[in-house]
Specification:
Helix content is about 35%, strand content about 10%. With about 70 residues, it is mainly α. It has one domain. It binds zinc ion. The site of zinc ion has 8 residues, from helix 1.
């Protein structure tokens, strides 16, 4: 039994309308897929800042150097 041929309203490609096809009846299978390709990391808060850590390390090194110089003199 042949499936009815429909034209996708999104990409205008003809496709067979299967009875168990998920999504819209007037969209081809590829256009029926949910558009959730955005990576989850894009919404994650920026917890690690390499520049900030470098500044902290530089400040720490400076403090240690000041301590050593003070001890020597
Ligand atoms: Zn389509």
């Amino acid at each position: 039994m042949p499936f009815p041929i429909r034209t996708c309203v999104v990409c205008h490609e003809e496709f067979e309308l299967h009875p168990d096809k998920p999504g819209f009846a007037n969209r081809c299978p590829s256009c029926s897929e949910p558009e959730s390709t955005e990576p989850a990391a894009a919404n994650a808060p920026d917890v690690f800042d390499p520049k900030a850590e470098r500044e902290v390390n530089a400040a720490r090194r400076r403090a240690i150097r000041d301590l050593l110089y003070r001890k020597d003199s």
